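Action item from last meeting closed. Structure (376 res):
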């Protein structure tokens, strides 16, 4: 077992989300790579026997269905093709997982979600409760995006970010992304042979983002290194470590546990449940731009007051999620607005004593309360 680095010890995690990409699951003929997948299931069974709980986020439904339906561009030429491919491929995918896990004495459960299911607070809590109950019963949940009904407006778009959000909902210890590359390199290793593997990332800086290369090398998936960095941001904000490792070998989880080869994104700290949910949200209703004084106050743990607001954009109601940005456009925080957008525009830049006369009533003292805000 690889020695722990900054607390990142695979053998010690109590609950792990494992994401598997389409290019690893499905070969060029549109068939499940069953021999390889059996080695993954062997790893999962071994981890399960050791007392660890595993959640699988499995891509592959669109890739499987597209080839069976002979759809162009891997089933991604339009939303309707993707939906048809997903509906066809998901049956085969879930059946194979149930069959292989069952052969190891494990029960599989299928969970299909859309972006809305995890962006809507009540549905998010329902998903969290379902995952908790299944894991408590010793079941292995197999999760995928519900592409048969999802549209562009309500899609994750890639299962990397879905895995991070599922990890939040399940209060997991870590996320492992099995990929067609063994981690983040200083440059695209397919183009630059001297690129070096980055083994540990303590913070996702602009320099780290610049190393990423968008797009899927296989042409099957919808993600790329940029989507994996976005997943790492979501996971780390929730106090969850994330690893990118190669799936181009048998028993990839066991190989990672023994060698540690891959890129590890270390989580700095954890936050409360509501703030984890806020930090991981992928959709917001509006933006509130603040001045330098307000930005400094937020960094010190204070609420956002109307006096520090420069401008308001978007249409939102009280209680909707908004981003708080600096005057150069950087996202500083995310939170629940105490005002609807119409009133927020009216009181932007105003002192507390002015707000009552502007709105004609007793005002709330803050624009966004610190208890309903997470710094990003």
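Sequence:
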């Amino acid at each position: 077992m690889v020695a722990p680095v900054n607390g990142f010890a695979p053998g010690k995690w109590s609950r792990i989300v494992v994401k598997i990409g389409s290019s690893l699951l499905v070969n060029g003929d549109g068939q499940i790579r069953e021999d390889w997948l059996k080695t993954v299931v062997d790893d999962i069974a071994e981890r399960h026997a050791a007392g660890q709980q595993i959640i699988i986020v499995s891509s592959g439904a669109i890739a499987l269905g597209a080839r069976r339906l002979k759809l162009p561009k891997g089933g991604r030429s339009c939303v309707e093709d993707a939906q048809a491919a997903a509906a066809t491929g998901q049956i085969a995918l879930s059946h194979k997982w149930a069959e292989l896990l069952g052969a190891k004495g494990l029960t599989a459960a299928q969970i299909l979600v859309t972006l809305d299911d995890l962006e809507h607070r009540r549905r998010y809590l329902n998903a969290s409760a379902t995952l908790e109950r299944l894991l408590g019963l010793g079941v292995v949940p197999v999760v995928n995006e519900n592409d048969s009904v999802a549209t562009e407006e309500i899609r994750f778009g890639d299962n990397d970010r879905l895995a991070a959000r599922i990890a939040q909902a399940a209060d997991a210890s870590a996320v492992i992304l099995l990929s067609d590359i063994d981690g983040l390199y200083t440059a695209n290793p397919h183009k630059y042979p001297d690129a070096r593997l980055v083994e540990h990332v303590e913070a996702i800086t602009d320099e780290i983002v610049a190393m990423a290369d968008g797009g899927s090398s296989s042409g099957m998936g919808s993600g790329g290194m940029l989507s994996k960095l976005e997943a790492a941001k979501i996971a780390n904000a929730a106090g969850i470590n994330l690893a990118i490792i190669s799936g181009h070998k048998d028993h990839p989880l066991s190989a990672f546990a023994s060698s540690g080869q891959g890129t590890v994104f270390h989580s700095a700290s954890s936050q409360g449940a509501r703030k984890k949910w806020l930090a991981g949200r992928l959709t917001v209703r509006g933006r509130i731009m603040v001045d330098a004084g307000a930005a400094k106050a937020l960094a010190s743990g204070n609420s956002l007051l109307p006096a520090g607001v420069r401008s308001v954009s978007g249409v939102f109601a009280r209680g909707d999620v908004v981003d708080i940005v600096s005057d150069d456009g950087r996202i500083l925080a995310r939170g629940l607005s105490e005002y609807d957008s119409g009133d927020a525009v009216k009181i932007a830049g105003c002192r507390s004593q002015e707000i009552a006369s502007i709105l004609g009533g007793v005002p709330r003292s803050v624009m966004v309360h610190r208890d309903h805000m997470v710094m990003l």
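Note appended to the action item: The two ends are 33 Å apart (CA to CA).
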